[in-house]
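We examine the record.

___
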Amino acid sequence: MRLASWFLVACAVGLFALNASATVRINEVMASNGSTIADADGDFEDWIELFNTGAAPVDLEGWSLSDDYAAPLMWTFPSVTIEPGGFLLVFASGKNRLSGPHLHTNFSISASGEEILLTRDDGTLADELAPREIPRDVSVGRQPDGTGEWVYFLTPTPGTANDGTGFSQLLDPPAFSHESGFYAEAFDLVISTDKPGAVIRYTLDGSEPTTDSPLYDSPLHIASRAGEPNVFSEIMTGPYWSPPEGEVFKATVVRAAVFTEDALSGSPGTHTYFVDPAIHERYPAPIVSLVTNPDHLFSDETGIYVPGALWEDQQPNAPWRNPANYREDGPEWERPAHITFFEPGGQVAFAKDAGVRIHGGATACFPQKSFRVYARSGYGHEKFNHPLFEDDAPDIHTRFLLRNSGNDAYQTLFRDAMIQTLAKPLGLDHQAYRPAVVFINGEYWGIKNLRERMDQWYLHHRHGVDPNNVDVLSRDRGVQHGDSAHYDAMLAFLETADIAEETNYRHVQTLMDTDDFAAYQAVHIYASNTDWPGNNIDYWRLRTDQYEPEAPHGHDGRWRWMVYDVDFGFNYDPLYSPPHHNTLAFATAPNGPSWPNPPWSTFLLRTLLGNEEFRA
């Protein structure tokens, strides 16, 4: 009798535990977090909110989250308890953190739609969100919490109840009668939707349509914009700015979205039309049409392209050092944009939502600035799948640059690209180049250098290495990715070892690619680059436990160097590069100034030249 009672109690406890574990649900998901909530690093990452609908706490240790039906156990929880009626926020960032102020999964979420799975520690499915598009700064959540139907929220509530207005449907963008491209003659643009009772609203200034935007009620006449006044190019963008000398060429940008009272408008349709009788002969280079809300670029408060509210004229003789909006960086200064890439002749190569940031240091104060363009899952895609360049560069890019040619922006517009092209046959990491014409919200914005962005993703696409398993350092061991421990140990060895001894030199060759380093130094010395070596120096290695001599190039665990930003090369400025300048002496000076050749920056070359083999 006592045994039977114990068995019944055990069964009851087990059933209660099973029911308790069944009460944890996926409650809210955000796949493109632009400004809703930041993690402890200040990054705005995707997130998944769980809710415990039951009356007992649940320890999630051994449970899993995933964005792939084929791999439901992609990321596993540590021991963390979610209380009855409690919420748990997990950032889906790819950072893979099991401790700290926030948990982070090892995956991120695509805004274009992918499944979200919650799996119990026994391998059974606890809950799921089926794939669906989730626009930027919009969430999908249950209403009421934990048990209701999935709806869209314009005002997400991470970590709290879903008590706002929910929309049951996300509307598709309307259809356009004409594709983006070149048109020799004017035409009437028809925009349509098959949603009963819906209206279409549109904009022509790059902003996303809202319920206050003009109502589309008849075809839009798309014609040449010749004779129209300049708008965006008349906005002051920095201390060296001056207005264009005349009228700039303009395209027509149309953005349109569908609206109803009971559904949420999705991403707008965005098209760029170039209308001119000679348009097919006008631009022999590719064209990048960048379309975004004007405030994202030009607002004093949030605009990334202007001095803005952060401007302070602290150093009139060095305005590039003054605080300004355009000098800010990081996720909070990334802005959403729509990018349409036209190959010469007007053929659309791709049209995608993306993120843009200002790129560059001192040159960010120039009137025409450089952009970094980001593909992210939060924008609906993680790659730009198009051969942007005509050489041996990869056909897939995670990021790319629209560069103003740096310090050379007022001279050749290709100095850095030309010098890097000379470095290419030496097998050095360099940035592919192609000139491109840029338009911002329909206005001509000049010729830019289309370039690869050098970071861990460049290394992934160029060398096939794991982007999460590399050390990337800048200048004097500034960590861009990974850590500096291996490089620190190499420098410590060189500070005490006699490099003239063959055994010591052979050991160093297991730590760094000395041939790569010699070629890297030769390029800068030959080009007489004087904004280096204390500046514009990046180097990297794949993290391995030891030197792997049989591994493919870039996979052996040794340090290699990247050639970039050689704008001061080939006598850019006689003040720094006089004709009699001895760049070899400059690159080996033991006591150079803090810029551009401080002692730390010449130490490696000075030391290695003490070895006969390396010197030869």
